[in-house]
Predict the 3D structure of the following.
Amino acid sequence: MGSHSHPLPTPVTSAGAEGLAALLARPGKAVVALDFDGTLADIVPDPESARAHPGAVPALVALAPHVASVAVITGRPAAVAVEYGGFAGVPGLEHLVVLGHYGAERWDAVSGTVTAPEPHPGVEAVRAELPGLLERFESWSGTWIEEKGRAVAVHTRRAADPQGAFDALRGPLADLAARHGLVLEPGRMVLELRPPGMDKGVALEKYVREVGAETVVYGGDDLGDLPAYAAVDSLRTKGCSGLLLCSGTGDVPELAEKADLVLPGPGALVGFLASVAAGL
């Protein structure tokens, strides 16, 4: 075991401490899975200007040779996460996997291609109806629609009253989603309408089984990461070791309360991964 550049923070739970110990002792049996926005990339007002933290790729490159697999699991289209992350053609990340649209799409660095099933017809119907629905909420100007291919999202971050807009739209958007066989997934000042059965937990559990990992590390920052947290808890009951990382200082208390280790944002999370790699 090499020497750490600085001491690793201690997980607050015994299960997390066991997960970190298992990662350090048997890294070749571990999957490290990470969300993108807010975890590997800082949250920015315009999602199109989001980019991986400067330390993210170097940390993943340092970690990848030691572990069974590194995966990025995101609500974004896989190709967009690859582009914004700068993950393509990176020496050391030849086996990186990006599971986009909550696992509905998959990009493998080995082939450089995205594989995906047919999109859900409800997304097209919702896309057509959304602008009209939002226009009926004139007081919530500043909300805007993000096109996600297999899903569609309404952001309220730029509205005059972001929380007020979020609260007012939540019910009507849930009704719209239900009418077209979709589900509404709330996040930080964003409401996403997407097909059921697309969640990070389903994607993570399936991937961990595929790899045959004995330890799973998952890092996230928002409500959409709760299903992945639940998947790690479920895997723990089946003999897996797990380590749950939360990026952020309690912006999403529902996540922070369940985490084994809370790290104050992408810079700290990337630093933690780099320290782990240095110790392997």
The longest strand covers residues 241-247.
